[in-house]
Write a structure and sequence with these properties.
heterotrimer; A mainly alpha (about 400); B mainly alpha (about 425); C mainly alpha (about 80); B: about 425 residues; mainly alpha; 5-stranded parallel sheet; 21 helices; C: about 80 residues; Non-ribosomal Peptide Synthetase Peptidyl Carrier Protein, Chain A
């Protein structure tokens, strides 16, 4: 039945130069129409659909089935809860809806851990980003700020092609407002200008810098580090920095592409990175690194947990509350990355580091007069934050799993 | 609006045009012969050189210096004093090895690499080292394949693919390696036995023209220099004139100095880094290894098909395994011998009769440098056969290729009859 | 007491900052508010004015200045 899908070529998003050429050519009518103040919804839908199909075509066709199944599941959750919420507001129904919404992703994340690396058939590229979007909708419905929306709006938001596979994670109300209003010509020209800039910056990041760090430097360093062995060695330090830069330039490059294509379609998808290695402390870092994810966690997990704890006065001290929630929040993020010891410890590492960071900031505020603050201390803060982040990325990379436990 | 659009896209268009023009105006110069650069490429052992058509063509078409392609894999990086490149250099042989292949490279990689040098292979000689370890159940690892693969190899191949059994097999294997999506359409047509359209061929030759200019452009930017750093200095260790007894004695001396730490005759450094820490874990670890059933047999057949098409006279070398190590890890030597017999049968039945079979030498003293690679005495034995093959007149072989070697039956046959 | 005085008083009590001379400045950028502080302020507002503030509304674009917070409270009171 799915033969036709298997026959098609598989095009990974933003994978090679040809992908950009095909996509940009397909978008010309969209751009021209927007310049004249029109949005051709049917055509945009068609292009999006075609590129989504190609993303899962060929050997990935099973993922396409999983995607369709998942969208149906999410639609049932979101519209079911929307209908319920018009009449009542029981928190257990809300928790239940969120639980069921997250369930497929949880199965996908847990499956490899319990089956020695087998992937769940429910999984597909981008599943977690779809979950973020729909859970965000549920939360806003609970709060009563999101009430009415159509099935078309839901589908367009969930399946927005430029950001489907790896974000940035947009919010329904923001996205839909952009979509339903066509930017005026002056503003849109400004967006095109930015898009061109982001596109070339993305090329530089992903195809040059990520290539240098990830393809030219990293394999050699990993090999040397494995040969040297032991708990830690110099080449591993090299792996740490090469991996960290590769991770950033690869993901930031990808994010820039997603933003570029969004802008050309007249949607101001939020940025994902803001010079993260210039962060002065860890809190600042999370306001600059994978921003759409960390803001999602901040708004929908951190703040809500704090709210619950404070409302029920679980802890007497506000600093204890924030500390506990920091660790919980980041540990959940670790689990989300995958159920392996290194992702989870990456989460816990950041949670604990944020607690220390918070303590330091409070201490500093109380001793404003004694603690010097100048260009030099600021530079040192940036340097220290950068290196702590790099250590956490070494954990995140999973390389230590190879080095210590020889899991190749 | 148009003015603003012009300001936004103008520089982009100018830049794109300038880059394309720059690359296309760069002459495709495959006849520039600079001996030092050629030696550098011949000993570089990098995927960059492996993929670069210009570098390979320049060296292999040099009329003043005879470079011979040495196809193989990780053994080439064992550059000790008795390495074939060092011996050829030290004794001013009439040939110099052009080393092709590194860790993880197997026949499929070599076959697509050859597409870029078919003209240079025609009516010439070559050396091809086969490691029985290649013949694992899943064949070549797609990640390793991608590491040595570029689109130009496949596009060049597609220009000549006609839909023979060999072509269809190669297309299927390439699809299985999951390479660039832009090739999928073409490959599927070939795999299905259909011809490419004139339109397809037009696109292919246009892309190739661009890629080949690009290839030329980067040929002059080589990195590293194994030739001056690892080959030339070692020639000083060699006796002034070639003398087998003296060389053997020297090999024994070096080997004895470097194999003090273990009972397997493995080089100390290799042993410390790769074996010592996991020694207990490795005992019996190869008991289940089986090299008899593998798509690698079909991939080897592709390479043979290429040699037949270009009338290349090839010396095949079969690598031994360190028998002490094999005993420790429980490698089934009967299975290993059957594998060698199967490979040899595939070669000889089709007319490839120049075979240097070292499979029975894995227990000789100082023959192996580590677990599966020759060194010292092994390199000397290798060199003796290779030197003889390349410097004495050889009769022209006649090949008769058989498509059954692409068949499932052969790839899964456990005995040769 | 009017809403403005109450809100300024709350901010002063909670974060030890007097923001009466920067009513339109972004409180997140100024370092007065953070996610933790936002929640504290929301709970405080809910208790004092007997309204329910949706957490989704406390985003960084909507309730990010003293004036916007006061506006928001008035709107919710009249809703």
């Amino acid at each position: 039945m799915m033969n036709w899908l298997q026959e098609l070529p598989n095009w990974q998003p933003y994978g090679d130069p040809q992908y950009f050429i095909y996509l940009l050519v397909a978008l010309i009518p969209v751009v021209v129409a927007l310049l004249f103040g029109k949005r051709i919804k049917w055509y945009e839908g068609l292009v999006s659909l075609a590129f989504i199909v190609l993303m899962f075509a060929g050997s990935h066709w099973q993922q396409f089935i999983a995607l369709i199944g998942y969208i149906i599941w999410q639609a049932v959750m979101v519209f079911g809860y929307a209908k319920y919420r018009q009449k009542a507001d029981n928190k257990w129904v809300f928790y239940g809806a969120v639980f069921l919404d997250v369930l497929p992703l949880a199965i996908v994340k847990i499956t490899p851990a319990v089956t020695m690396g087998q992937n769940s058939l429910l999984g597909f590229l981008g599943i977690s980003y779809l979950m973020f979007r729909s859970v965000g909708m549920l939360m806003e419905m609970r709060d009563g700020v999101l009430k009415e929306f159509t099935f078309g709006q839901f589908l367009r938001f969930m399946l927005f092609m430029p950001t489907l596979s790896s974000g940035p994670i947009d919010r329904f109300r923001r996205f839909t407002e952009d979509y339903e209003t066509v930017p005026d010509r002056d503003k849109y020209l400004g967006m095109i200008e930015k898009a061109v800039h982001y596109l070339f910056l993305g090329f530089f990041y992903k195809f040059i810098l990520a290539y240098i760090f990830g393809t030219l430097l990293l394999p050699g360093l990993e090999h040397e580090a494995l040969v040297a062995g032991g708990l830690i060695n110099w080449p591993t330090i090299g792996v740490m920095y090469a991996y960290g830069f590769d991770l950033f330039f690869d993901f930031a490059g990808y994010s820039l592409f997603a933003v570029t294509i969004s802008y050309l379609m007249g949607i101001e998808t939020p940025m994902n990175f803001d010079k993260p290695f210039m962060a002065k402390n860890l809190k600042d870092f999370w306001n600059r690194w994978h921003m759409s994810l960390s803001f999602w966690f901040r708004d929908f997990i951190f703040m809500r947990l704090v709210m619950v704890f404070m409302r029920h006065k679980v802890f007497k001290n506000r600093n204890v509350t924030s500390g506990v929630v920091y660790v919980l929040n980041m540990t959940i993020m670790g689990f989300w990355h995958g159920v392996t010891w290194y992702y989870i410890s990456y989460g816990i590492f950041h949670g604990l580091a944020l607690v220390i960071n918070d303590w330091w900031l409070r201490y500093k505020r109380r001793h404003k007069k004694q603690i010097p603050h100048n260009k030099f201390t600021e530079g040192f803060a940036i340097f220290l934050t950068f290196n702590i982040v790099m250590v956490s990325f070494l954990l995140f990379s999973g390389f230590l799993d190879q080095l210590w436990f020889h899991n190749h | 609006m148009l003015k603003r659009l012009g300001l936004i896209f103008g520089p982009v268009i100018v830049a794109v045009v300038a880059v394309i023009a720059g690359i296309m105006l760069m002459p495709e110069d495959n006849n520039k012969h600079d001996y030092q650069a050629e030696q550098r490429a011949a000993n570089a052992l990098t995927p960059i050189v492996f993929k670069n058509q210009t570098l390979k063509q320049r060296a292999l078409s040099d009329k003043q210096h005879r470079f011979v392609p040495f196809f193989g894999s990780s053994e080439w990086s064992r550059m000790d004093t008795f390495h074939p490149s060092v011996l050829a250099e030290g004794y001013h042989r009439s040939y110099r090895p052009f080393l092709l292949g590194q860790r993880g490279a197997q026949s499929l990689t070599q076959y697509f690499g050859m597409q870029q040098i078919t003209k240079q292979l025609t009516n010439k000689q070559a050396v091809y080292v086969i490691s029985p370890q290649w013949f694992v159940k899943q064949g070549e690892d797609p990640n390793a394949f991608k590491y040595y693969f570029n689109q130009a190899q496949a596009l060049t191949w597609l220009q000549h693919a006609k839909g023979t059994t060999a072509d269809r097999y190669a297309a299927k294997r390439l699809l299985a390696m999951n390479v660039s999506s832009s090739l999928t359409g073409y490959l599927r047509r070939i795999a299905d036995g259909k011809k490419l359209t004139a339109n397809d061929q037009g696109w292919i030759s246009m892309k190739l023209r661009f890629l080949n200019h690009e290839d030329s452009l980067f040929a002059d930017m080589q990195l590293g220099n194994n030739y001056t750093k690892r080959v030339l200095p070692k020639t000083a260790n060699l006796p002034k004139t070639y003398n087998e007894t003296k060389l053997n004695a020297l090999a024994d001396k070096y080997a004895a100095e470097h194999t003090k730490s273990n009972q397997f005759g493995i080089d100390d450094k290799f042993y410390q880094q790769r074996v010592a820490k996991q020694l207990g874990k490795l005992r019996g670890s190869q008991r289940q290894f089986n090299y008899l059933q593998s798509p690698e047999y079909g991939d080897l057949q592709l390479a043979l098909q290429q040699f037949a098409a270009t009338h290349t006279n090839v010396l095949f070398v079969i690598q031994p395994v360190n028998e002490k190590w094999a005993a420790y890890t429980g490698l089934d030597m009967k299975m290993y011998d059957q594998t060698v017999a199967k490979i040899k049968s595939q070669l000889t039945t089709q007319g490839f009769t120049n075979i240097a079979d070292f499979s029975q030498s894995g227990d000789k003293q100082y023959f192996m440098q580590d677990t599966i690679h020759m060194g010292w005495r092994g390199w000397l034995a290798f060199d003796k056969r290779v030197n003889h093959f390349l410097t004495t007149p050889q009769s022209t072989p006649t090949y008769h290729m058989q498509d059954k070697y692409y068949g499932h039956d052969w790839m899964t046959a456990t005995s040769v009859n | 007491m009017d809403v403005k005085t109450e809100v300024l008083g709350m901010i002063n009590d909670l974060f030890l900052e007097d923001v009466s001379d920067m009513m339109d400045e972004d409180l997140f950028d100024a370092g007065v508010l953070d996610s933790m502080g936002t929640v504290e302020l929301v709970l405080e507002i809910e208790a004092k004015f007997n309204i329910k503030v949706p957490v989704s509304e406390m985003g960084r674009d909507d309730w990010n200045t003293a004036n916007k917070i006061i506006e928001g409270i008035k709107e919710l009171q009249n809703a």
